[in-house]
Design a protein that fits this description.
By secondary structure, the protein is α+β, with helices and mostly antiparallel strands. It is built from eight helices and 13 strands. The protein folds into three domains: 221 residues, Transferase(Phosphotransferase) domain 1 (Transferase(Phosphotransferase), domain 1); 37 residues, no CATH class; 39 residues, no CATH class. The N and C termini lie far apart (79 Å). 26% of the residues are buried.
Length: 319
């Protein structure tokens, strides 16, 4: 959100942001997501990115719902969504209280056991937001008075074809529930991740192992820290030839621009270039390289009060 101004009023901070066209709640009242279900895809993608950013920074929103997602219209019936209303947010280490909107609360919050909450509460709320927006499996008309009724209604919705790829967002156990980062890796190949991809793990704990036949559902297996598969070769960085001073960029061949670049300076392995230390040159070799460089242009030399032109490859007379 575009920040405009903030002020303190009776110990309360008021923050002013740019005015938006409306919220997802308004789009739902227009039956946008039931008429055009494909419009829910950008909502899922953009909100996962927002939740991943919050999670990486140790913040829980704790009130993700349609009314708290604003939008800006774009051409071709596209929308930019923005998560707002952080009045109930809390740091990850301090979030324990019963708070939020009951219809969208995660089971661990509804049961109010006083345990430490995680960012997975927002993942559950986002899934319910999508189910509610699309009215999947008649969700809006179902009785949602008790915690078990809410959980059952969500699980019935995740059995539909459109929600089956993301049903790991609705696992009751927060330890087994997918995180926002895991869903970004699974659905969008990690594009837009805030969490470093080396910290995102897609394992066998998933309640819905993705099919390898569909690219969108293909899981990205991450190496186990400390294992041999986690050792990455050192990528070649821009190197400078110690003799000619010519800089070689990563992924390019040094021979095209510098015939003196030693062939032993690069080694290929598994398709990745590694950099080795350049070999040592003898003094005679250095003198030869130096002569080649100064031989490129004619210079003028003053010796014994004589103004003498020195041609390329020659030295001034010392008589």
């Amino acid at each position: 959100m575009e920040y405009i101004f903030a002020q303190l009023v009776e110990s309360q901070v008021e923050i002013f942001t740019a005015l938006k066209e409306g919220s997802v709640e308004g789009l739902i009242s227009q039956d946008l997501f039931t008429r055009e279900p494909q419009c829910a895809e950008p909502l899922l993608n953009q909100m996962l990115l927002a939740l991943d950013y919050l999670d990486y920074n140790g913040i829980l929103h704790r009130d993700v719902k349609p009314a708290n997602v604003l939008y800006t219209s774009q051409p071709a019936c596209q929308y930019i969504y923005q998560l707002t209303d952080f009045g109930l947010c809390n740091a990850r280490d301090n979030a324990r209280t019963y708070t939020g909107s009951p219809m969208f609360m995660a089971p661990e919050v509804l049961r109010n056991q006083g345990t430490r909450q995680t960012s997975k509460v927002d993942v559950w709320s986002l899934l319910v937001t999508l189910v509610y927006a699309m009215d999947t499996a008649g969700y809006r008309k179902k009785p949602l008075h008790t915690t078990e009724q809410k959980i059952t209604a969500v699980h019935e919705a995740t059995q539909t074809p459109e929600f089956r790829p993301i049903k790991t967002m609705a696992i009751v156990d927060p330890e087994q529930r997918a995180s926002a980062a895991q869903m970004i890796v699974k659905l969008y190949r990690g594009k837009g991740l805030t969490t470093p991809d080396t910290q995102v793990f897609i394992g066998s704990h998933s309640a819905n192992p993705p099919s390898t036949n569909t690219p969108r559902e293909a899981a990205v297996k991450r190496p186990v820290p400390g294992s041999a598969t986690n050792i990455r070769p050192k990528l070649m960085t821009a190197a400078r030839n110690p003799i000619t001073g010519i800089q070689v960029r990563p992924g390019t061949s040094p021979y095209a621009v510098d015939p003196h670049f030693p062939k032993t300076n690069l080694v290929r392995g598994a398709g990745i270039q590694q950099q080795r230390k350049p070999p040592k040159y003898r003094t005679a070799d250095l003198k030869t390289r130096f002569q080649e460089r100064i031989a490129q242009t004619a210079t003028r030399h003053i010796f014994n009060n004589r103004d003498e032109t020195i041609m390329p490859g020659t030295f001034p007379n010392e008589d």
